[in-house]
Amino acid sequence: xxxxxxxxxxxxxxxxxxxxxxxxxxxxxxxxxxxxxxxxxxxxxxxxxxxxxxxxxxxxxxxxxxxxxxxxxxxxxxxxxxxxxxxxxxxxxxxxxxxxxxxxxxxxxxxxxxxxxxxxxxxxxxxxxxxx
Length: 132
Hints:
disordered N terminus
């Protein structure tokens, strides 16, 4: 009985560890945290916890922080993006900008939740998090 219980615990731990994200190797810790905050904001919007306006307000802060961090990293890399450690940070920054853009379009009545979800899932992929 103890062996079965231990086996169940081990299987459960393996399953749970595979469901949680781990920071990508070539992404800065700061950009990873900014991305996670943006992802949480979008999820709270989809879950009805916050309004569209609140989501836009929060994402604008995340977008500004991501842009500043990306610009700093790009300058330190000599301006190169692709094939450098800056590439993952650039992608996260771009995803956050795209999500904010599509939230803005939704606020104008021309965007859809499907558009927002597409970029939310791109961000989740970049952060090794689960898609919705």
